[in-house]
Write a structure and sequence with these properties.
The chain is mostly beta strands. It has one domain: Cupredoxins -  blue copper proteins (Immunoglobulin-like, Sandwich). The protein is about 5% helix and about 45% strand. Strands 3, 4, 6, 9, 10 and 11 form a 6-stranded mixed beta sheet that branches. The longest helix has 4 residues. The model has no long low-confidence stretch (mean pLDDT about 90).
């Protein structure tokens, strides 16, 4: 059996401000706008079962707040398996489950987060991306600015 290979996908995360509220939009071939979810299909990318997706979240902060990902990858992304028919996104009190989605690196001064998605089977995963404002403590999870889309893994590949 050959070594697993990764397929890189870039997801642009645009943060804007409307009054006191921060809004997020995503841009990627993976983004399913009507469902507010990232959809992964190994078979659409010629991937095998043991291959994996690498997701590069790239922050485009247009808020004026100096947003960035926290330096610790597990602080930048909280993950939980989504319940069937219900997708409750994790928060600071959730014990994250990084079995399938694993944040592995924050780089470029907090502008990029790299995540590995093994996509071993059809299942949904809820996740929250966290950001800190310029000058605020990365340890103060109460002050995080968060965005909580869904990941829909469609298959485990060929």
């Amino acid at each position: 059996m050959s070594r697993p290979k990764g397929k890189m996908h870039q997801v642009s995360v645009v943060a804007t401000k409307q009054g006191d509220k921060t809004n997020f939009t995503a841009g990627s071939e993976l983004w399913d706008e009507p469902n507010g979810a990232l959809r992964f299909h190994k078979d659409h990318h010629g991937m095998r079962k043991h291959d994996y997706h690498l997701v590069e979240f790239v922050l485009d902060d247009r808020t004026g707040d100096g947003l960035k990902f926290p330096a610790v990858p597990h602080d930048a992304m909280w993950v939980s398996k989504a319940d069937e028919g219900r997708s409750s996104c994790p928060n600071k009190d959730t014990i994250s489950d990084y079995e399938v989605l694993e944040p592995i690196c924050v780089c470029d001064a907090g502008e990029r987060l790299i995540v590995r998605n093994d996509n071993p089977r059809k299942e949904d995963w809820a996740f929250t991306l966290n950001f800190v404002k310029r000058g605020e403590s990365e340890e103060d999870t109460e002050r995080y600015v968060s965005w909580d889309p869904i990941t829909q893994n469609q298959n485990g590949g060929n």
